[in-house]
Amino acid sequence: MSFTQLAKDRPRLLIVGGGYVGFTVAQELQKRIKDSGGVVTVVDPNPYMTYLPFLPEVAAGNIEGRHAVVPHRQHLRDCELVGGRVIGVDHANRTATVQGVDEGETFELAYDEIVISGGSVTRAFPIEGLAENGIGLKSIEEAVGLRDWVLERIEFASLTSDEDERRRALTFVVVGGGYAGTEGLAEIEDMARTAVERNDRLQPSDLRFVLIEAMGRIMPEVSEERAEKVVAHLRSRGIEVLLNTSLDSAVDKHLKLINMQDKSPAGEIDTDTLVWTAGVQANPLVKNTDFPLDQRGRVRAGADLRITGDDGPLEGAWAAGDVAAVPDLTGGGVGGFCVPNAQHAVRQARVLAKNVLAARAGKPLEDYYHENLGAVAGLGLYKGVASIKNLPGIKGNGVEFSGFPAWMMHRLYHGYAIPTVERKARVFSEYVLNAVFGRDTAPIRHAREPRLNFQEATGTAPATSKASL
Ligand SMILES: Cc1cc2nc3c(=O)[nH]c(=O)nc-3n(C[C@H](O)[C@H](O)[C@H](O)COP(=O)(O)OP(=O)(O)OC[C@H]3O[C@@H](n4cnc5c(N)ncnc54)[C@H](O)[C@@H]3O)c2cc1C
Fold it and tell me: Is the CB of 136 under 6 A from ligand 1?
């Protein structure tokens, strides 16, 4: 089936995924391609680009969920926008298969050129009980839900007389000590402490936070020495950091841990909140395409961001970001490829957009080359860590610092980096409002069951409606 309202007879550049890469490429090309008689079509199940580095702050209520996303309809006005999921690509016949959102119709979309920018998805392992009881931190819905959940658990705990229930409600566990997990737990701890300080039936010492990391260190983005300081900082806040430890089972939210070095049992924890941030993998949608993939399931790309197989680059096919294996010409990266981060995604997108135009004009293509600029992370209000490299005047191993200056840098950098002036303004004004009025610790009750009030009014509410994450 083909969809009648979508553009026909206009050369189409199809962008699969409107996240960091897709949004940036669309922004750069939409007007030029429209003016030259073509169309840029963005297919994404979400009507927005999610600014993922803000998720920990959304989970901690420092940033409103809606402000951490950039709406496509508002900011990609010269594009054709399709709310759907690409479920397959037949590049030999220049056709993508799209399914509309909410189990909508499935249809074929013809294109002339394609950009594969579907990003990555959470990588979970077959750990018993994990799928049923865990939650990721990879989408705005998860971050918003997590914030409400943590605050609801605190309210619940403050009234229950059952000691076991109370302990479970006030225990928060994150598995994965990368940036997302470390920032996520540190931010949530900060919010939870504020919430408890405002509740005179609880003490901060009632709270328990645990970070579980399978490797011997956390945060591979900063030096080992700095990572050790972050661990010491987290521990000084009462956060348990368990290194060389992994999750063995999570049945009924009873966590069994194992020591990764000798595979011996490493303790048991009962918790209502299990957050899984232990890694990402390329979006599996690419397995349903005729594009060349590497061993890790990523689309193989050349340094010029054309999809490239054993016989050389494919005509009219481009890829970048987390879904693609792009050579890291600096000699860094893992296995010679760019690591999956926003720093690369947004810069690759700009080179990709330039190369699309260059290829059309028969001009030489540019290779993607980017020296890692380091990283900044927030660890709760006024706390952070930064590692800055390869900027003018900063060479070699760069400079690293922590505390308030790092937190400030984190805020300024991300507040500036979120696309569009309108979103920057929303984020910065929120920072100012929070500084004046303090953190907002009210959960939105029943956001996950919006019909509950109506069901209660009409006498159709379920007999018990125990909250679940
Ligand atoms: C919590 C968290 C914090 C992070 N913090 C940092 C940080 O501080 N610094 C940093 O450099 N990086 C950070 N990252 C990593 C960074 O956000 C990613 O590397 C970056 O978003 C990759 O961009 P992308 O365009 O490849 O993918 P994404 O930005 O994820 O975009 C992919 C898009 O594809 C869409 N999509 C998915 N499936 C389909 C489909 N079938 N059809 C059509 N569209 C589809 C998605 O809805 C999404 O909009 C963080 C990531 C997370 C999860």
Answer: no
